[in-house]
Specification:
Pfam families: YueH. InterPro entries: Uncharacterised_YueH. This is YueH family protein. This protein has 80 residues and is α+β, with helices and mostly antiparallel strands. The chain has one domain. The chain has a four-stranded antiparallel beta sheet, covered by helices on one side. The protein is globular, with a radius of gyration of 12 Å. The model has no long low-confidence stretch (mean pLDDT 92).
Length: 80
């Protein structure tokens, strides 16, 4: 499991990323937003970024923060 720190709205936020290589899936959790999601290696590109942003928008994050966070999560999970 990897733990990344980022800043949203001047607050430090921890993002937990777990990669299951055997099942080719990734689980991402942001406890401060009470949010988590899982996706497969096959999901990629703009469709995944949009799915992450849409899911994050349902939390206590505004649209801009959700978009920024989805971009970061995509980058972190695809460099693993």
């Amino acid at each position: 499991m990897k733990i990344r720190k980022t800043y949203l709205n001047e607050e430090e936020v921890k993002v937990f990323i777990y990669e299951n290589k055997k099942e080719e899936t990734v689980v991402v959790a942001v406890p401060s937003a009470e949010w988590s999601i899982s996706f497969t290696y096959e999901e990629a590109g703009e469709a995944l970024i949009e799915r992450l942003a849409d899911s994050l928008a349902g939390t206590n994050l505004d649209a801009q923060s959700a978009s920024e966070m989805s971009q970061r999560i995509y980058q972190w999970t695809h460099e693993m």
